[in-house]
């Protein structure tokens, strides 16, 4: 399993660039950052944990993910650049496709996307995304962006995205930019993933992950997909060796370890402890050992 780091990036604490460089030096494989364009003061949408209020104020202070990852790309050469999670439907799809293609081009093909449907329906509504259609909107965005990334003359005609034959360069270095969906497990989510994405990212409150991985693979096979889905496990608490072994057996491909948004010195010390605990070899960035 690959090992990644997620930083709930904000306008305080360690920067994404500093974290990415430190992570690459210690052998981590991926850096992830989140996205919220803004947080409406109105609180009609419940947080995924079930709370009526947000867990902390970082939601109101998040940095733009693509600019953050661009700064990380500029100081690194190997580590992959991803999101946990981005909200594509809150951007213009043509502009977003250009941003992601440019980042993949300038980073030498290191981009992957962790995307969500958007739990904060208050936020979605300010972007004129009907909450009940958010899965359809994301499907159209993904299809339209893939056309812009791969077709000589791209075009798309949908309910929420429509543009005529167009040229769009640069094309990404990767022939296919991986897309995993971060959302609560269930038949509807897994059917969407099997039809449109490359894998699943667990939520922080997910339980019984191994059984849910099996359900995803069933949906994957029923959709006629070849190969296996990617499974990114977002670690919410210190896992036991049994947890890690179970996730590996269930087909998890990536582990995502949280990083505190604290000072650079504090984060560096945390990374040293984490890298040692999971058996990483500095500068290698391959598979990890077991947690002691």
How would you portray this structure in words?
This protein has 292 residues and is an alpha/beta fold. 36% of the residues lie in helices and 15% in strands. The chain is built from nine helices and ten strands. The protein has helices at 16-25, 65-74, 93-107, 121-126, 134-150, 187-196, 209-222, 241-249, 264-277; strands spanning 2-7, 30-33, 80-83, 113-115, 154-157, 162-166, 179-182, 199-201, 230-234, 254-259. It has an eight-stranded parallel β-sheet. α6 packs across α7. It is globular, with a radius of gyration of 18 Å. The two termini are 16 Å apart. Residues 283-292 have low confidence and may be disordered.
Strand percentage lies at: 15-25%
Strand order in space, largest sheet: 3-2-1-10-9-8-7-4
Number of helices: 9
Largest sheet: 8 strands, parallel
Task: Give the number of DSSP strands.
Answer: 10
Unreliable segments of 5+ consecutive residues: 283-292
In short:
With 292 residues, the protein is of the alpha/beta class.
How is this fold's topology laid out?
Layout: E1 2-7, H1 16-25, E2 30-33, H2 65-74, E3 80-83, H3 93-107, E4 113-115, H4 121-126, H5 134-150, E5 154-157, E6 162-166, E7 179-182, H6 187-196, E8 199-201, H7 209-222, E9 230-234, H8 241-249, E10 254-259, H9 264-277
Parallel strand pairs: 1-2, 1-10, 2-3, 4-7, 7-8, 8-9, 9-10
Antiparallel strand pairs: 5-6
Helix pairs in contact: 1-2, 1-9, 2-3, 3-5, 6-7
